From TrEMBL:
Protein name: Nonspecific cytotoxic cell receptor protein-1
Positions of the FBA domain: 30-131
Domain of life: Eukaryota
GO CC field: cytoplasm; SCF ubiquitin ligase complex
Positions with biased composition (Pro residues): 53-71
Keywords: Receptor
InterPro entries named in the record: F-box-assoc_dom, F-box_only, Galactose-bd-like_sf
MF-aspect GO terms: ubiquitin protein ligase activity
One Pfam family named in its UniProt record: FBA
Region feature (Disordered): 39-79
Species for this entry: Epinephelus coioides
Gene3D superfamilies documented for this protein: Galactose-binding domain-like
Alphabetical GO biological process terms: ERAD pathway; glycoprotein catabolic process; SCF-dependent proteasomal ubiquitin-dependent protein catabolic process
Amino acid sequence: MSVAEWKKRCETEWSLQGAPMPDSLDWKSVYDAKPFGRNLLRNPAPHGLSQDIPPPEPDPPEVPTRGPPRFQPDGDFSSWTHSTEVLPYDTSGIPAGVAVCGLPQYSWFSMEQVVDLKAEGLWEELLDDFQ
């Protein structure tokens, strides 16, 4: 197929009428990347099949583990950034002079992934000018 035919195929298949489509792009590579109609995030450990199905419960270990539960998921999340924010203790309801033996510690665990849209097949003119 010629460059014009690949460009036309992308335009009709992805309904890109009115979108900037420069002739300088390799439209066969764009078509092969299929940047539309798919999830651009990489998920190495998907749990549920849909939002209606909860993730499977792990089997409890035969011997209880020591320490707090693990919050990092299984899988290769090397391309993700993750952080844990330990929340401060709430001592507002403790009267003065009371001996406190232990307080629960809470934290937030968050994961973030950066997606290079150009590497996924989108082009600069589309990202800058088209909505």
